[in-house]
Structures are given as C-alpha cells and as structure tokens.
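Fold sample X.
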Amino acid sequence: MFDWNDVKALLAVARGGSTAAAARELGVNQTTVARRLEALERDLGARLVERHQAGADLTEVGRALVAEAETMERAAQAMRQTLEVHRRGVAGTLRVTMSEMTANADFMPMLPEFRALHPDLLLEVVITDERLDIEAGEADVAIRGAFSLPDSTLVARKIEETQWTLYCSRDYAARRGLPTTPADLKDHSIIAADGDPFTFPGLGDLLVQAPEATVALKSSSTTNLFASIRAGLGIGPMPTVMAGLEPDLVEVFPPRPQSTAYTWILTRPELKDAPRVRAFIDYFAPRILARTREAQARAARLASNRP
C-alpha cells in the first residue's frame, strides 16, 4: 500500500516540472521529494518520473496516474473539510442565499430566535433573485423557489409548495376589465419576470393563445414585479398564498396544475451533515412550512368572507 505523501510528491512534480519546484510547493527539501518518488515507484512497480538536468518529466505511466492522483487529492480535501466542520460544531460562518421575497416574508422574522439559539454562528446572507452557483461554492446553502430543479449533485430538501396564477389590481380591472379567456389577454398589459414570459409555467401557455399581448414590464426582481401588479400596471403572476391576503388584488384565471412552485433548501453533499448546516435546515424548513400553511389558512378565510 502506498503513502499519500508519496502521491502528493508525484502531483507536485507534474505541476511544477521539477523536483525543486515540487519541494517548494510541499515545503520540504528536494531529497525528501526524491525519496518519496522512489518509494511510490517501488510500491507500484513502475517508473513514474524521468529526471534530467533541466528538471523532471513524467513517464507515460506517471502521466496516466495523474488524474487518479487528483481524484485522491479531492477526496482528501473533502475529508479534511468534513472533519473541520464537525469539529467546529454550530459555529463559524454560513453563507446563505435567497430571494428578497423569501428574506422579507420568511427569513428575517425568524432570524432573531435562530441567532439566540446559535450565537457563535455568523450568517452571511446574499439577497438576490439570481441563482448563485452552490456547487461552485458561491454560497453554502440556498433557499430557492422553483417550478423544477435542474439536475445537479446538490442535496435538496423540499419545504413547501404553492400555486401561482395571474392577478391584477382592482383599479386595473375597473379601468381595463378582466379577460374571460386566455385569448382576451391580447387586449391587456402583461407584467412578467425578466427573460422570456412564454417560458413561465402557467403563464407561457396562456400567452401562446394571445401572442399580441403587450408586455408592459419585465423585472428581474420578484418584489418589484409584485409591486407593479399592485400598482395597477397590468396583469402578472403571483403566488396565490400571497395574493390571497391582499383584498385589492383580483384573480384573473384559476391556478393551473403546471403552475405549482416549490421551495427548496439546497446545499452541497459534503456540507449536508455539517452541524451549522444541519442546524440551519432543521430550524428554518419546518417554520417556513408552518408560516406558509398559516398564510394559506388566512387567505382561505378572507376569500370566504368576500362578497
């Protein structure tokens, strides 16, 4: 069985092109690098490095082993990271990302109690509607609303689901009337999320039936999109649980099956059991669900009392 330190010497020579460069990278002397290479060659029964005056070149066998050695290196780094997060417990820094809507409606009201439970944990909160790359390490955890999740290596926990449909303000309905069929949308102003409105689940298939519809505003911010609908700028998509609590909004069409959105908490596999990540998920997931159910119940009561 070979020694991991010997494999590191092979990688350092491959990257530096000489035993001297490898020694500098590893923080040892050249003699130690040479000894480790010889030990690895002896254990594997193959010549891995050709040494010459200008430096060192890997043999064909040595080059073939570099990819496997890099896999070992990544595994070793992951092991060290896992060990470190468990040593630290619910402490250190946790970088979390979510939309402004989620932050304002769910996260911030719960944050004081969570901080009281875990005073040694520093939260870095990135509020954005953009999708940060969790796999690349742009954040440790994401609370993310989506109609579907793309394939990835991320660990996902579904928290809740809610339906979306089209709404407008009562003022807009009084001025412009309400469409009775999707084709009638051609006579109305549409508020849409940034991008192609035809791809929005539950909205795109309606707009296909009214290609002449005027898109009055596209917004990269869901908070701004909803504010535009409330202001009477046009007809746009909102979650029923939110719109149902606002008496000045009018449902334009009933929710469609394909317009159900889900809220997920996402993290990388190597972090899912880290105490700080586990504490975050175990605290926020059930509470976000409870707040949503409470809001849905209030919306149902309001709807039943409306004329």
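Fold sample Y, listed below.
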Amino acid sequence: MKLLAATAFALLPLAAAAQAVDPATLSQSDLLGREIGFGLASSALDAQRPGIWTMGSTARTVASPPAAQSSDVLRRNAVAGYGFGQSGVSAFLGYGQAASDLSNDREEARIRSYFLGLAYAGETPHMRYGATAYVGRSHNVVDAPDALTGSADHDGRLTGLSGRITTQLSGTPQKGVDLTIQGDLLRHETRDFTVTGYGGQTVGARESTASRLRAELGMPMQLRGWSLRPYAAMGLYGGNQDDLNVGTATIGASDAFGTTQFSLGTGFAARNGVGGRVEMSVDKQGEAGALAGIGFHF
C-alpha cells in the first residue's frame, strides 16, 4: 500500500513540475532520532555509578527498508553524569549527532541533539537493574538537490525511557553466565517545515515512536586486572511512524524501524575507572554494523 500511495503521489503536480516524493529521505529523522536516543540510553545504563562518570560511543549501521532507499548511518554520543552516593540516582547531560547517506549518493540527512536525563541503578543478591529517562531537543537537516527532495532544516523533541535487568544464571558477577534484558522506547516529535524541492511544499508536523527489546547472554570473567564480559545478543526493533503530509497529499513513511539484529561483543572494565564495550552486528537483511564505547568514572 505504501508503494502504491507513493506511486500515485508521484503523478501529482508539485509547483511547475511533477516530482515524486521519496519517503525514505523524509523519514530519516525517525531513524536518526532512534539511533542517537538508544545510543545515549545504553551509554548511560553502562556508565552510571556513584560519583562523576562519563561515556562516549560511536556506531555505524545500515537501514534497508522494503521498497525504499537504504541509508548508511554513522552516529556519535557523549554523556556525563553524577551519581548521588549510594542512592542509585544519577543526573546527566548528553549530546548526540548522526548522519545518513542514502543509497543514491545524492541525498543526506543529519541530526543533532542535547539531552537532560535521570538514571537509577540498584541490585539484589541475584539481580542488577537500571533505568533511565531523558528528553532532548533535536535539529534535523535534509540536504539534497531540488530535483530530488531539496534542502530543509527543522526542530523536534526527543523523549525516551529505557530499562535493563541482569540476572545471574550461574557463578558470580565476576565469573559465570548472566542474562541481560533491555527495553527501550523513544518518541520523536518534529515540527512542520518547508523543503526547497517539491515546489516549496510544506511537510506537516509528525511523530514517531521507536522500540527495542534486546537480550544479551554474557560470560563475565577476570583477566590480568581487567573485568571482561563477552556476550551474544539479539535485538528486536519496531515502532510506529506517522504518515508524511506533503502539501495536500499524504504518503506512508518509509519503515525506518522494523528489523532484527544479532550481535557479538564484549564489555570491559579496568580498576582505574576505564570501561566500555565493542560490538559487531548483522541484521536480518544481512547489513553489518559496529559499535565502540569507552567511559571513565572518578
């Protein structure tokens, strides 16, 4: 249905010429918002602890929605927070930016955002848990020739909530087998904006909601003063995206969310306060990705 709607809309005159709306280009803010939001949340959940803590991460992924252009995404996040003693509560500031190059090599989208958030961590004899909530303002940019989508920039708001539970299946947190479950939700609201393509039409305000459910099976161990946690993970991604209202026409957004991702990686921590993780992944479309993050606590 989305492909039929897009084809029908391509026949409509926009200004002086008929121009096909590419839903993949105008849906990039959904994808990029998810990438920086989930990246920020995972960094905060990894790094939070009493005192001053910070973490930065970068990741590359490829999104290949059906019946639409694919996009090569590179994102970066940084987060710094303070944990209030043994209360388990932390407050943090964050920054994220991401860019996607579409497969026609002529269109690009970018996003940047500053965040404020709270995190909480606790544990029982058999379980460790954490959660984070955050909000940020996004600035979104589309850069393309007018003959395609044209250029535009617009603002939005990101609101996210993530939670994580780790249970020990055998052994101890220092040496054994554990299972981590993480759930993430992110809402991205964007204002209406005008593109220089499509005859200067206005794209209406809209919102998207991204979700992820991720399971990690880890094997924590100690090696020469380092704590290591090799793991295998699977993530289920989904969500909802509002239609694109361009002028008086409505088309379905390109599916920026739906996929399943499989990952292998390792977390690491040293006694001097350095820690992080590295990870390689592949999704069900066969697209490969990579992630690296490093943090410090004082």
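Sample Y note: The domain at 2-297 is CATH 2.40.128.130 (Lipocalin).
Also: The two ends are 54 Å apart (CA to CA).
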